[in-house]
Structure formats: C-alpha cells, structure tokens
Amino acid sequence: MPAWYIRREQKKPGQNSPPPQDLQHYLQKSMIKYDLATPPRSRKSDDWLITYTDMVTLLITLFVVMVAHATFEKQETGLLPLIFENPEQLNTDLGDQENVSRGDVIYLGDFPNAEKTEQAEKLRASVKEAGLSESVDVEVVSDAIEVRISEQVLFSTGAADLFAQGQDFLSGMLPTFQSSDFEIIVEGHTDNVPIKTAQYPSNWELSAARALSVVHYLERQGIQPQRLKAIAYGQTRPLSSNNTQEGRRKNRRVQIILR
Questions:
Q1: Percent of the chain, pLDDT > 70?
Q2: 20 found inside a domain
Q3: Are both 254 and 190 inside the same structural domain?
Q4: Closest by CA position to 168, among listed 136, 208, 120
Q5: 151 burial level (CB within 10 Å; 0-12, 13-18, 19+)
Q6: At 106, is the secondary structure helix, strand, or coil?
Q7: For a disulfide at 3, which of 12, 13, 38, 136, Cβ 3.0-4.6 Å?
C-alpha cells in the first residue's frame, strides 16, 4: 500500500444515522483520514524538456524544407553550377558582371579547357557555314565538346546510310577533328517509336548502325581508329518528351563527343 493515501471508513449496510449525542464521535470515525507519516516525494519539474524538444523539431523541419526546395543542376562531369537570377550577385573575381545575364550558369570546378573552347568555336563556324544552326548544336561541357546532330541532317527515317548532305557536313568538321588528338565518341540515339525490320529488329540496332556509319565515314577520311568509339543508346537517353512529334524529332539524333 502506498505511503500517501486516502482512506474512508465505509458505513455498514443497515446502519442508521447516529443520534445527536454521538454526532461528534461519528464524525471522528467517518471523516477522511490521511496518513501523513511519509509526505509525498517532491519531483523536479521537467517542463523545459518539452520546450527544448519542440524547438529542435522545428529546426530540423526547417532544414528539411530548405533542402527539399533547393535546386541543383548536376552535369555529367559532377560539377554543380550556380544559376544567378540577378547578375549583381556574381562576384567580380569570377568574371565581368556586365557580361553576365539573368540565368547564366557559372560552374564550380574546372573551367572548360581553352583548347576545347577554341575548337568548339570552329565547329560552330562550320555549322553556321553549312546553314544547319537549327539542326546542330555545339556545346562545351567542362572537359568535353558535344555536337548534337538531328536525324534529318544525316539519315532518312528508319535508315542508317549517310546522306550526301550529311557527309558534306561531317567533312566540314574534319579539319577540327584532325587538328587535335581528342577521343571521338559517336553516340546513336532514337525516339521510342518501335522499329521492327529485317535489318533493324529494334531501336538498339538502328542506333548502333547509325553510330557505326559515322565512325566508318570518319575512319575513311583519315581519323585514326584508336581515337574512335561508337555507342548505341537506343531510346534510353531522350533529350525531350517522346509524347510530342517535336520531342521525338529532337531525340532522333547522333551525338559526337570530343574528350
């Protein structure tokens, strides 16, 4: 039985109210009795823990929300770019603020190789001279030059034989390829529309045949085979959604990467 308790004497069944002369005695027997021999043990208040726990929980929630809303754009090279909404945010040590516009990307890490930047400019000049600026993109991605060539420049639909126009375009880029010793990686890409012919049972075979067709042409033009590599990606790496005709057109491409 606990040290601190309340005990009430119960009235027996059938017992009548006491006469007035016994009222004092009855009250003494019927009153609530307390055992005060051992006082209740005092307990130190822990209310501060509730406030502290609430504060820590709120801080953790705040950090989770901040991370969830953060936006990072990671390139294949593993560099994280900073996208400046306001050019004034750019430190002058990183470049000329007057040449930075809204949405410009500044990379944290190695800047593009000067030689590759120069080669990319030559390739852009070749594209412009051929009048294919709407169908061919040239980009410098950290340590590589990427040339994205739309299907209609090189091949007819569902085929892997180079157009004469496509051969002329590749010939225009040959001086740039030959003036360097970069590795040349040719990637074949398709949309998600199935193809099933005797020559190309699936998009894998079609993308491989297109990549090899470009590789063979470059080799015939004098590019060392040790520098060449062909990769087939089929429909697995789309640039745009395959739900629209324009998106599928962008996905049917050949990419030449100089690295």
A1: 66
A2: no
A3: yes
A4: 136
A5: buried
A6: strand
A7: 38
Residue 217: CB atoms within 10 A of its CB come to 18
Q: Is residue 58 domain-shared with residue 92, that is, in the same domain?
A: yes
The tokens describing 171, both together, are: 């010939």
State the pairing for strand pair 33-34/144-150.
unpaired
Closest of 172, 170, 142, 152 to residue 228, by C-alpha: 170
Model confidence pLDDT, tens digit, residues 193-250: 999 899 999 999 999 999 999 999 999 999 999 999 999 999 999 999 999 999 999 9
| Same domain, yes or no: 206 and 230 | yes
β 80-83/136-141 pair status: unpaired
Residue type, 253: R
Structural domain range at position 98: 47-107
Angle at which helices 164-178 and 114-129 cross, to 10°: 150
- Same domain assignment for residues 73 and 167: no
Number of structural domains in the chain: 2
State how beta strands 228-234 and 184-189 pair: parallel
How far apart are the C-alpha atoms of 155 and 183, rounded to whole Å? 24
What one-letter code names the amino acid at 94?
L
What DSSP letter does each residue of 24-42 carry, written as one string? HHHHHHHS-EE--SSPPPP
pLDDT tens digits, one per residue of 134-166:
999 999 987 899 999 999 999 999 999 999 999
Residue 221 sits in a domain whose CATH number is 3.30.1330.60
Burial of 232 (0-12, 13-18, 19+ CB in 10 A): buried
